[in-house]
Specification:
heterodimer, A: alpha+beta, Alpha-Beta Plaits, four-stranded antiparallel β-sheet, B: alpha+beta, Peptide Deformylase, five-stranded antiparallel β-sheet, 9 strands, 18% helix, 33% strand, disordered C terminus, binds zinc ion
Chain lengths: 173, 166
């Protein structure tokens, strides 16, 4: 089986980026696995698992011309990862409050201490320039209960940061 | 009694609508026994629909009683079920025995009322909520050739887990 690579591309957002990059990969004989692509602050960031019967340098070459024309920086690493290695999240955490420095570090630091494994983190800044509102959503896996997590994060909530935990119980049917 | 093989997408039978049950006989009850065994054999399975084992009939089983702290009706055998009322809308995580190794977020009605027939053809009327209502809506979708993949909601669109009220 062809080895897997992690391909990361970042640059100014414009229409058609995904189509051009994935077309170049397809024409070069690469297969896509899991991917995450999103617009962050006017930039577009793509992370793709790519399998190709070659090496990292050859994968980079597949997209080099399009990336250059689109103004995207490219980074490729050989990875040992595989498909079907999902860890099911069992806990979701919503955090919001007045934007202030250190909010992510404090919350994730407290979570790390109790062994919370972050599987997905998304954050955004709402409000306006005068009163920015920081919003973060985390999904992860943790052996602790909601009550234990609430107790751990309690000192942070005293500073006016709202933190809400909810268990994720997938309904399988 | 037997555990039946579960069809996995892209088997096209999962995308076909099922037909109403007309005969409430021994063969039906034997099939329901097998269907229930199949549901219980799946890891964490709380529901199953006949099309998942290749039977295009409007039969589902839902039993969420193994999950703690839930409002539920025990093991429900629902034949020719129809949802007659829906209220509220909540997002929750779903997986499916016919779609292995993937879970996703889906919006479902918070409260439903439904009518159905039991294994002997007697009429049932039920009001369900929350997790049990979600399981029933997921299984009834199977009867119409729909998978939860047809209703996926992006994780990113929901920075807040929110409830919508109609
Ligand atoms: Zn299903």
């Amino acid at each position: 089986m062809a080895p897997w690579f992690m391909l990361a591309l970042v640059g100014r957002d414009q229409a058609g980026i995904v189509a051009r990059i994935t077309q170049a990969l397809y024409q070069g004989g690469a297969n896509l696995g899991e991917a995450s692509m999103l617009r962050l602050g006017g930039n577009f960031a793509m992370m793709l698992m790519v399998s190709h019967a070659s090496d990292a340098r050859a994968v980079e070459q597949l997209v080099a011309r399009d990336a250059q024309e689109l103004g995207l920086t490219v980074h490729v690493d050989a990875i040992t990862g595989q498909l079907h290695r999902h860890i099911q999240p069992n806990m979701s955490v919503s955090v919001y409050g007045a934007d202030r420095s250190g909010i992510v570090a404090r919350v994730t630091g407290a979570l790390a201490k109790v062994g919370f494994h972050i599987l997905n983190l998304e954050s955004d800044v709402g409000g306006n320039d005068q009163q920015p509102l920081y919003i973060m959503h985390i999904e992860g896996h943790c052996a602790s209960s909601v009550e234990q997590l609430q107790a751990t994060l309690e000192p942070i909530t005293r500073d006016g940061i709202q933190i809400h935990f909810e268990t994720i119980e997938p309904m399988v049917g | 009694m037997a555990v039946l093989p579960v069809l996995v997408f892209p088997d096209e039978r999962l995308k076909q609508p099922a037909q109403p049950v007309g005969h409430f006989d021994h063969a039906l009850r034997d099939f329901i026994t097998d269907l229930e065994q199949t549901m219980r054999a799946g890891p964490g399975g709380v529901g199953i629909a006949a099309p998942q084992v290749g039977c295009q009939q409007r039969i589902v089983i839902v039993d969420v009683s193994s999950k703690p702290k839930l409002v539920h009706h025990g093991c429900l055998i629902l034949i020719n079920p129809e949802i007659t009322y829906r209220d509220g809308s909540v997002m929750g995580r779903e997986g499916c025995m016919s779609v292995p190794d993937f879970t996703g977020n889906v919006m479902r009605a918070q409260n439903i009322k439904l009518c159905a027939l039991d294994a002997r053809g007697a009429k049932l009327e039920l009001a369900c909520t929350g997790y049990e209502a979600r399981a029933i809506q997921h299984e009834l979708d199977h009867l119409d050739g729909l998978l939860f993949l047809d209703r996926l909601v992006s994780r990113r669109t929901d920075l807040f887990p929110r409830k919508k009220y109609q």
